[in-house]
Amino acid sequence: MTSANIEIRPAIASDARKLNRYVRHIFATSEHLITRPHEFASGPFRQRMWIAGKATNPYETCLIATDGRDIVGMIDSWTDRRERVKHVTTFAMSVHPDWHGQGIGHRLLNSFIEWVRGNERLEKIELHVHADNESAMALYKKCGFVQEGVRRRAIRYNKNDFTDDVLMAYWPNSSGVENIEGE
């Protein structure tokens, strides 16, 4: 497995089965996602409809990383249609555990930032990350994201085990001053 052969591209309808399989696996194996496996009720048909919705909405996307056979990572973005916040896009990202540490998350994130830069309406990128997901936080900071806030004990792993939800942001079309911690 080498990340040099990984293609980053928008998901298309024919990816539905593979995307459904990938998402089910990620929900079952990652402690750093909000959705649990039993909460994900989707099959290939619904996944195809979801992909079609992303493809027809110019302000949302689903980018996948594929090795030509399987999906090994993805970014899903969404926006609010209300006027005062429609300039903001939020995303979630995941990489298959077998591909961690090979630069796929970095490539996905850079591709997503470039996609946002090509969209005149979108001015700000936001994300939520578990405070104990140190590798993800390091990647986001490396790419210019800054912490905007913390929701204390917002994520519950089990009855007595919580973590904070860290809010981070990036302004892809700015001069850079907004992307400096504390500004």
Describe this structure in words.
The chain is α+β, with helices and mostly antiparallel strands. It has a single domain (3-179), classed as 3-Layer(aba) Sandwich (Aminopeptidase). The chain is 27% helix and 31% strand. The chain has 4 helices and 7 strands. It has helices at residues 16-29, 44-56, 104-117, 134-142; strands at 7-10, 62-66, 71-79, 88-95, 124-130, 146-158, 161-170. A 7-stranded mixed beta sheet has the order 1-2-3-4-5-7-6, sandwiched between helices. Helix 1 crosses helix 2 (44-56). It is globular, with a radius of gyration of 16 Å. The protein starts with 6 loop residues before the first strand and ends in a 13-residue tail after the last strand.
